[in-house]
Amino acid sequence: MKILDATSGFRVFLKNRVPRDLVCVDIRASVKPDIVADDRFLPFRNDVFGAVYFDPPHKHGYGGFHKERYSGFGSYNNMRALFLRLFLRGSREFTRVLADNGIFVTKLTKVTQFQGDGSNSRHHYSILEAQMDSRFVEYAQAAGLRLVARNERSSEGMSRTARVVWLTFKKS
Fold first, then answer.
1. Are 61 and 111 in contact, with CB atoms under 8 Å apart?
2. Does residue 81 contact residue 133 with C-beta atoms inside 8 Å?
3. What residues pair up with 114 in beta bridges, in sequence order?
4. Mind giving me the DSSP string for 75-140?
5. H or E segment at 69?
6. What's the number of domains the chain is made of?
7. Does any domain span residue 133?
8. Which region holds residue 119: left if phi is over 0, alpha if psi is between -120 and 50, else beta?
9. Model's pTM, two decimal places?
10. C-alpha angle 11/166/163, rounded to 5°?
11. Residue 113: inside a domain, yes or no?
12. How many angstroms separate the CA atoms of 58 and 9, rounded?
């Protein structure tokens, strides 16, 4: 089964377990993906992947790659809108390249970093807010995917806490 890692970055998703049929895509040539491409315009035929993994881009604050690539958004609220638009268009592409009965998995992360005694917290990097996962589900369903599982996990360590939501869909 061919697997698409649509936002491979530095290939952290599978760590050292790299399936033979994994295709890594990223918009940044600097991370050395198999194919440099924008998720909103994937260079693949229809129905070619048995699974697609999408870990939306997130970074400490609004700067670096995001500011360079998506200049003009300027604020955190605009970045959230950017991620939603990226997923709206991307989910249509993921559905297009996903074979019938294929699986689509996305990971949403919210990390809060505590300052001082923990009573003063700020979002360190985040795209997951109260309604973000429901918006992702809505967009995926509009693209022709059916939600089959939602798993949530929280972890704490050092001076931060993380909440990770895994959404699994099936194309039918």
1. no
2. no
3. 121
4. SHHHHHHHHHHHHHHHHHHHHHHEEEEEEEEEEEEEEEEEETTTTEEEEEEE---TTHHHHHHHHH
5. helix 64-69
6. 1
7. yes
8. alpha
9. 0.77
10. 95
11. no
12. 11
Each residue's pLDDT, cut to its tens digit, for the chain (172 residues) gives: 899 999 888 777 666 666 788 999 988 888 889 999 988 899 999 999 999 998 876 554 444 444 444 444 445 556 666 677 778 888 999 999 999 999 999 887 765 554 444 444 444 344 445 456 788 888 899 999 999 999 888 777 655 666 778 889 999 8
Q: What angle is formed at CA 122 by the lines to CA 167 and CA 150, rounded to 5 degrees?
A: 10
Q: What is the CATH number of the domain that holds 77?
A: 3.40.50.150
| Angstrom distance (rounded) from CA 73 to CA 52 | 28
Q: Identify the domain containing residue 52 by its residue range.
A: 3-108+128-152+166-171
Residue with the two structure tokens 């693209």: 143
